[in-house]
Design goal:
Layout lengths: L1 H20 L4 E6 L1 H5 L3 H11 L2 E8 L3 H7 L9 H8 L4 E7 L3 H9 L12 H5 L8 E3 L3 H11 L13 H4 L2
InterPro entries: NDK-like_dom, NDK-like_dom_sf, Nucleoside_diP_kinase, Nucleoside_diP_kinase_AS
Keywords: ATP-binding, Kinase, Nucleotide-binding, Signal, Transferase
Cofactor: Mg(2+)
Length: 172
C-alpha cells in the first residue's frame, strides 16, 4: 500500500515537472498486427524520431480481446467494432508512448486519414497502406484519449522520463 502510494506520488511529481517544460505532451501509437507482419515498426519509430518526438514507452505484445474492447470502447456501437477487436488481437502489436510538443495533433497528421485512400503522400498510411481494414497503425485522437490509452497500456513505472540531448536543437 505504502509502495503504491509512493509510486503514485512520484509519477504525479514527474508528470507535473514534465508538463511545466511545455514540450511534454504524450500520445499513444500502436502498430497493429498488419504493420507488425509487414515489418513496419522500424519505419514508424524512424518517422517519429526524425520528427523530433521522444520515445518514453514501448511494448511488444499480443493484446487480449478484453484489453482491446476497453481500448476501443468508444467505438462499441459501430458495426465494425467486434471485427476490429478480434483482428487487432489476432497477432502481436507494438504499443508506444511518444512525447513532444503537440504530440497528439502532429502524430495524427503523421499517420494520415483512417482510410488510406484519403491519406496524403508523406503520411504513414498514405505511403504504406491501401485498405481501411489494414491501416497498420492507431494513434490517439485527443490529449484526453492519449492519457487514457497510455494508462491502459502502460503502468507508470514502465514510462521513462528522460532528457534528450537533441532537445535544444528541436525546440526554441
Amino acid at each position: 500500500m505504502v509502495c503504491t502510494l509512493l509510486s503514485v506520488i512520484a509519477e504525479f511529481l514527474r508528470v507535473m515537472a514534465d508538463k511545466s517544460r511545455g514540450n511534454a505532451e504524450r500520445t499513444f501509437i500502436m502498430v497493429k498486427p498488419d504493420g507488425v507482419q509487414r515489418g513496419i515498426i522500424g519505419e514508424v519509430i524512424k518517422r517519429f524520431e526524425l520528427k523530433g518526438f521522444k520515445l518514453v514507452g514501448m511494448k511488444f505484445l499480443q493484446a487480449s480481446e478484453d484489453l482491446l474492447k476497453e481500448h476501443y470502447k468508444d467505438l462499441a456501437s459501430r458495426p465494425f467494432y467486434p471485427g476490429l477487436c478480434k483482428y487487432v488481437s489476432s497477432g502481436p502489436v507494438c504499443a508506444m508512448a511518444w512525447e513532444g510538443k503537440n504530440a497528439v495533433k502532429t502524430g495524427r497528421f503523421m499517420l494520415g486519414e483512417t482510410n488510406p485512400a484519403d491519406s496524403r503522400p508523406g503520411t504513414i498510411r498514405g505511403d504504406l497502406c491501401i485498405d481501411i481494414g489494414r491501416n497498420i497503425i492507431h494513434g490517439s485522437d485527443s490529449v484526453e484519449s492519449a492519457d487514457k490509452e497510455i494508462g491502459l497500456w502502460f503502468k507508470p513505472e514502465e514510462l521513462v522520463s528522460w532528457k534528450s540531448m537533441a532537445e535544444s536543437w528541436i525546440y526554441e
